[in-house]
Hints:
Layout: H1 6-10, E1 20-25, E2 28-38, E3 49-55, E4 57-62, E5 66-70, E6 74-77, E7 83-98, E8 119-120
Parallel strand pairs: 1-8
Antiparallel strand pairs: 1-2, 2-7, 3-6, 3-7, 4-5, 4-7
Amino acid sequence: MQKVNLEEKFRLFDQYFTPKIVGELNGQYIKIAKFLGEFSWHTHEGEDEFFQVIKGSIIIHLRNESITLNEGECFIVPRGVEHKPQALEEAHIMMFEPKSTGHTGTLENEQTIAIENQQWL
């Protein structure tokens, strides 16, 4: 058992939209990521996706609305809902996802990181 300092962990990488695993909880990974720019539209058919903004702000685009999240705010995208995260400036995000959650859900493109290639920090 070790404590995790999120600020220290965020300093360990510079890539955007490449979640890093910092913990495990009840069959879920706790991941952190830096966002900048737009991610792809995608869906997770079998699981919800939790976004917590640690630093900065992001927009979660849904097909019928856009949700702006600022520091200290969180949002759960329900399973099966198509969404596209965006950050106008660098943002630091924490996510909770089942271990089996695909990075880009059912979509495979140049942004996809295979489950077996996810990295621990």
